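pinned: reference chain
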Amino acid sequence: MGIAIMLHVVAVVIWVGGMIFAHAFLRPVAASQLEPPMRLALWAGVFKRFFPVVWICIITILVTGYGVILMYYPDGFKGLPMHINIMMTLGIIMMLIFFHVFFAPFKRLKKAVEAQDWPAGGKALTQIRHLVGINMIIGLITAAIASGGRLVF
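pinned: its structure tokens
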């Protein structure tokens, strides 16, 4: 069980940490130093490299999280502590937001960059930025609840 929890936490750190880095550090510098064509191409390239890692993180989080529940809690999902239910619910919401980003605005961003349609690319990037910002906040709340929730709830 220890290895499963370790892998679970590492996957969360990579995903949430990547969002924090991209949103809070890379985005402001890219916006201030790059013209739209370069900035949109940069983001399309960054997401093309980061999103496959997020898929691996999501699979790892689901397998390890549900695995620990099924191994550690004799009644399975029945009777889980409140902080685990909250963590699981917020995690699923984050995954659904990511799926939307991946299959909708990211797809539009890639097409816009390939077609050099900078207004469409900017619109897609703005939507991604908003959704990543929401996911980042949910991820931080989820991490706080996961790490200290049993002391609060």
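why pinned: Residues 2-152 form one domain. DSSP finds five helices and no strands in the chain.
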